[in-house]
Design brief:
Number of strands: 0
Number of helices: 3
Helix content: 40-55%
Largest sheet: none
Mean pLDDT: 76
Radius of gyration: 19 Å
Distance between the termini: 32 Å
Number of domains: 1
Length: about 90
């Protein structure tokens, strides 16, 4: 039996609560205003540079480093980049 059939049968409500919708909206705003510029500035067929990924993760964690992120080696060095697939 499909989920839709089960929900209709038992009158389950799968809609988001107001708090959940606020979290979804906040995540969308963060991606649009902070993550997307990093994605736009880099080749979509390559991994983001490690420094960019670290800045995005710091923002997502709610704090930004007070010191610049030092990355050794080239941005094209696979050992110095991280994959971030959105």
């Amino acid at each position: 039996m499909s989920l839709r059939a089960l929900s209709q049968r038992s009158n389950m409500d799968f809609s988001l609560t107001i708090e959940q919708q606020l979290k979804v909206d906040a995540a969308k705003r963060m991606v649009e205003s902070y993550v997307q510029p990093f994605l736009d500035a880099n080749d979509r067929d390559r991994n983001l540079p490690k420094a960019a990924v670290l800045k995005i993760m710091e923002k997502a964690a709610g704090h930004e480093s007070r010191r610049p992120v030092a990355v050794q080696g080239s941005e094209n060095d696979p050992q110095q980049t991280l994959a971030l697939r959105l």
